[in-house]
C-alpha cells in the first residue's frame, strides 16, 4: 500500500534552517509528483511547493520562494523540503503528499504523510 | 498567482440537508486543475474530487463537483454526521498551486 512517512518534529530558532524528509513506498516513485503543504495552528492549508520526481522540475509558492528547496532522491524514494531563514510564522505542520495526473490531464493529491510539526521560537 | 476564495466561511446545516460550497478563482482555471478535499480535525486532508467533477476512489456519490472557468461548486446532497468538517478547494494551474481558505460545515 502507498505510504509516505515523514521525519519527526523539529524546534528551531528564528533564522535557522529545517529539512523535512518524506520516505515514499508502495508505488513507483517517479511515476508521481510530491508536494508540500503546510498548516499553521488553527489555520487552513497553504501550498508550499512541489517536485516532478521524474524530471526534477520544481515550483514553490511566492511566500517562501528563495527560502525553500524541494528535492527528491530516486534511489531511495525520498523527498526533502528545506526551509531556510525561518520565521515565527513558519510554525506549522508540514505535510508531504503524492501528486497524480490521469490520462485526461487532471491533477489531484491522493496520499498524504502523517505531517511534521515545525516550531520556530526564540 | 491565482487566488481561490471559498464561501461561505461557515455553513450551518442539519443532517440530511443539502450543502452547497463555492470556490471562486481570481482568473480562469482549467477544469482539469480543480480539486476538493475534506479535512477532519487532527487528520491529513482527504481527496474527494479532482478534475472538477471526478470522485476519488471510495468517495460516496453524495459528493458532487461541478463548475468551470472561475466558479466551482462542491455539493453534498444529504449530509451525514461525519460530513460536518472542513472542505478546501485547490487549483493546479498557473505553475503555482493554491488552496482556498476553507469552508467549515457545522451542525445547526
Can you offer a commentary on this structure?
The complex is a heterodimer of chains A (122) and B (108). By secondary structure, chain A is mainly β. Chain A has no helices and eleven strands. Chain A has strands at residues 3-6, 10-12, 18-25, 33-39, 45-51, 58-60, 68-73, 78-83, 92-101, 107-112, 116-120. The termini of chain A are far apart. Chain B is mainly beta. Chain B is 0% helix and 49% strand. The mean pLDDT of chain B is 97. The chains are: A mainly beta (122), B mainly beta (108). At the A-B interface, strand 5 and strand 10 of A face strand 4, strand 5, strand 9 and strand 10 of B.
Our measurement of the CA-to-CA distance between the termini of chain A, rounded to an integer number of angstroms, reads 40 Å
Helix % of chain A is: under 10%
Low-confidence runs of chain B: none
So what's the oligomer here?
A: heterodimer
Describe the secondary structure blueprint for this structure.
The complex is a heterodimer of chains A (122) and B (108).
Chain A: E1 3-6, E2 10-12, E3 18-25, E4 33-39, E5 45-51, E6 58-60, E7 68-73, E8 78-83, E9 92-101, E10 107-112, E11 116-120
Parallel strand pairs in A: 2-11
Antiparallel strand pairs in A: 1-3, 3-8, 4-5, 4-9, 5-6, 7-8, 9-10, 9-11
Chain B: E1 4-7, E2 10-13, E3 19-25, E4 34-39, E5 46-50, E6 54-55, E7 63-68, E8 71-76, E9 86-91, E10 98-99, E11 103-107
Parallel strand pairs in B: 2-11
Antiparallel strand pairs in B: 1-3, 3-8, 4-5, 4-9, 5-6, 7-8, 9-10, 9-11
Amino acid at each position: 500500500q502507498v505510504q509516505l512517512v515523514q521525519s519527526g518534529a523539529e524546534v528551531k530558532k528564528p533564522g535557522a534552517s529545517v529539512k523535512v524528509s518524506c520516505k515514499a513506498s508502495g508505488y513507483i516513485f517517479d511515476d508521481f509528483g510530491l508536494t508540500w503543504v503546510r498548516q499553521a495552528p488553527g489555520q487552513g492549508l497553504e501550498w508550499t511547493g512541489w517536485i516532478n520526481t521524474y524530471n526534477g522540475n520544481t515550483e514553490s509558492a511566492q511566500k517562501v520562494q528563495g527560502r525553500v528547496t524541494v528535492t527528491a532522491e530516486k534511489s531511495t524514494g525520498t523527498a526533502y523540503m528545506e526551509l531556510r531563514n525561518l520565521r515565527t510564522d513558519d510554525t506549522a505542520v508540514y505535510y508531504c503528499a503524492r501528486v497524480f495526473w490521469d490520462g485526461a490531464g487532471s491533477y489531484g493529491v491522493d496520499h498524504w504523510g502523517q505531517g511534521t510539526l515545525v516550531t520556530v521560537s526564540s | 498567482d491565482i487566488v481561490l476564495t471559498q464561501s461561505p466561511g461557515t455553513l450551518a446545516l442539519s443532517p440530511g440537508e443539502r450543502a452547497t460550497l463555492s470556490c471562486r478563482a481570481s482568473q480562469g482555471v482549467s477544469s482539469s486543475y480543480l480539486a476538493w478535499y475534506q479535512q477532519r480535525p487532527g487528520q491529513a486532508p482527504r481527496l474527494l474530487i479532482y478534475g472538477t467533477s471526478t470522485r476519488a476512489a471510495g468517495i460516496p456519490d453524495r459528493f458532487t463537483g461541478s463548475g468551470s472557468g472561475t466558479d466551482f461548486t462542491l455539493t453534498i446532497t444529504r449530509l451525514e454526521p461525519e460530513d460536518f468538517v472542513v472542505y478546501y478547494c485547490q487549483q493546479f494551474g498557473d505553475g503555482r498551486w493554491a488552496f482556498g481558505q476553507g469552508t467549515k460545515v457545522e451542525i445547526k
